[in-house]
Amino acid sequence: MTYFAGVDIGSTAIKITVITSKAQIVAHTITPTGSLFHQNSTLAFHELLEKHDLHRNEINYVVSTGYGRKLYRDADECISEITANAVGAGKSGENNGSVRTIINIGGQDLKVIRLDEQGQVVNFAMNDKCAAGTGRFLEMAARNLEVEVDGLGEYHARLQGVPSTINSTCTVFAESEIIGLLAKGESKEEIIAGIHFSIARRVARLVRRLGVEEAVFFDGGPALNKGLVAAIEDELMCELFVPEVPQLTVAYGAALLAREAFGDRGEQKSVA
Ligand code: ADP
User: Fold this and answer.
1) C-beta separation of 27 from 49 below 8 A
2) Coil, strand or helix at 242
3) Average pLDDT, 10 consecutive residues per value, the chain (272 residues)
4) Whether the Cβ atoms of residue 138 and residue 211 lie closer than 8 Å to each other
């Protein structure tokens, strides 16, 4: 068999997908990035192959992407996560109409990517200067509220009253604001929904800068949070398409580009 791999080295997690020549995912892993980007990616790749009884020489081409892509030395090629995200989202969302807008929230950044009818990137906007509106912001909130990050969506779903007002976009100020709201007796449900709406407003502002066009695809780890999804849908007044494993879209896109680079007849050509 012929396989291709995409290695997405994010600020928080390393994601790897192995696909067949028919673009089917046969193996994937999600593991913390840590500080040793090359070593941790190499180990994660090795363990993934071993678990699925695959050999490294069966993987014909490897494309790395993400924040730490240049530090992973075993890839055949590295590409930007904007390109990989566009390709991965285009393919994952193809049954839901053509994807024209991608919202990606990662551990440390927030991106919006606009695509044309052919799935080519026409524009993108990004916030990677501060943690506001990113996974890090949600992690900080969860820690202060003594809730697991994967439980935030359930608190939001249990909201009875009105979401709290969170004015601070800066993580440091938001942290004291959350503690102040707890002291005033506001419930965790209200505060968490308030946090989701504050991120959603930030996301919506960035999306509107590029113009909202459907279908809108939402990926990255925080897309697992159904409360955040509902808040963004509310702010944008449109439905979001969230893939089953939203952390994997970028690695999947990189694997698809690896397949493309290898060429239909097994000839090697560059994707850069
Ligand atoms: P990166 O690509 O920057 O490493 P990811 O797309 O892997 O980022 O997203 C990481 C973020 O996803 C974490 O900061 C966390 O907030 C969020 N996250 C991870 N798992 C879950 C989950 N099960 N439910 C909700 N949020 C999650």
Assistant:
1) yes
2) coil
3) 95 97 97 96 98 96 95 95 97 86 96 95 88 90 96 97 88 89 96 96 95 95 98 97 97 97 62 53
4) no
Atom of ligand 1 nearest to the CA of 246: 6
The pairing of strands 59-65 and 77-78 is: parallel
**What Rg do the C-alpha atoms of the chain give, in angstroms?**
19
149 touches ligand 1 (CB under 6 Å): yes
CA 220–ligand 1 middle distance (angstroms): 6
Whole-Å CA distances, 210 to 103, 123, 125, 202: 11, 7, 8, 13
CA-closest candidate to residue 86, choices 62, 113, 65: 113
Q: Which contacts (CB < 8 Å, 24+ apart) does range 176-180 have?
A: 178/141, 178/144, 178/145, 179/144
Do the Cβ atoms of 204 and 235 come closer than 8 Å?
yes
Q: What is the reported pTM?
A: 0.94
Residue 209 vs residues 49, 113, 203, 205, 239: alpha-carbon distances, Å: 42, 11, 10, 6, 18
